[in-house]
Hints:
The chain is built from 10 helices and 11 strands. By secondary structure, it is an alpha/beta fold. It binds pantoate.
Amino acid sequence: MAQPHTITHPLWTVVGEGAIGLLATAQLHQAGFPVQLHRRTVGPFDFVFQSAGQTQHISLHIAAKHPYSFILLPVKAYAVVDAVQQLLPLMAEDAQLVLSHNGMGTIEQVLPLLKPEQGLWFLSTSHGAFKPDHATVIHSGKGQSVLGALNQAALAQQQSVEETMQAALGPLVVMADIWPALWQKLAVNAVINPLTALHQCKNGELSNGKYNAAIELLIEEFVLVAKASGQDFSNDSIQSRVAQVIRQTADNYSSMQQDFAKGRRSELEYITGFLLKQAEQHQLQLPAHQAIYQLLLQKSPR
Ligand code: PAF
C-alpha cells in the first residue's frame, strides 16, 4: 500500500516581534510550517492573531534551535545592520536571510557581511498589520508580496524560500530582478510617508487637491534620480501608482506618520535620505525632497 506523502519543511526563524513578523509567523504556523521566533527575551511567547474575522491563540517557543538556516528579518531599515551583526554567529554557513522593510540602502550594507554560501533575499510586502498591544496582531489589510534573490548563494535554496514566503506573506510574485519593484515602492514611500508625517494626516488626505503641487514635484525629482541610478520610470506611471496607493490606503495612517506621532525613530534616512544620497552621487539637486527632509529632521526625536 502506498505510504501517505508528507512534505517536510525546514525550520524558519522570524526575528523580532513587529507586526509583519508576527503576521508571517502566524500564517506559517497556520499552514503547518515549522517556525520559531528570535526575540530579546527567552521563554515561550503567546500571542493573539486576528485575521478575516477569526481569532487564533498562538503559542511558540523562542528560538532555541541554532544554527539558523532560514531567517526572515522584518525589522525597520535602521535596525537591520545591528540585527544581522547579532545574528551572524547564530547563522548556518549556508543560511538564507530574507530582509523585509520600507526604504532602501540596507542590501548594500548586509551583502558584505555574509559568507559566500549565505543567501540574501528581499521581500517587499503590501500586507497591512498592526499591534494594538504587544501580544496581539491584527491583519488589517490583505496585500501581496514581491520576492527576489540578491546573490548567487540565494539561488541554491530558491524553491524552499519561495514556498515558505508564499505561505507567510503570499500571494507572492517572484522576480528575477527585484530592483525595479524596490524603487517603485520607494517612490510611494518617498511621497506618502513624509507628507503624511509632516501634516499628521491619513493617507487619503493627500488626494485633497492642496497637496497636488508637492506630490508632483516629489515625483518629478524621484524620476530624475531613479533614472540616474539606472531605473527608468515615467512620471505618469509613478503618478498613477502613488494615486492608487493613496486610494487603497485612504483610511490608514502611514508608518512614518505613526512614528512621528508616537515620537519614535522613523525610516526617513532610508527613504528620503536614501534618495538624497543617490542624488548627491549623481550631482543632482532634489529641492523638494531636501526641504521635506529638513523639516522632518527638525521634528525627529533626538
Ligand atoms: O509605510 C507605509 O505606511 C506603507 O508602506 C504605505 C504604502 C505608504 C501605506 O501607508
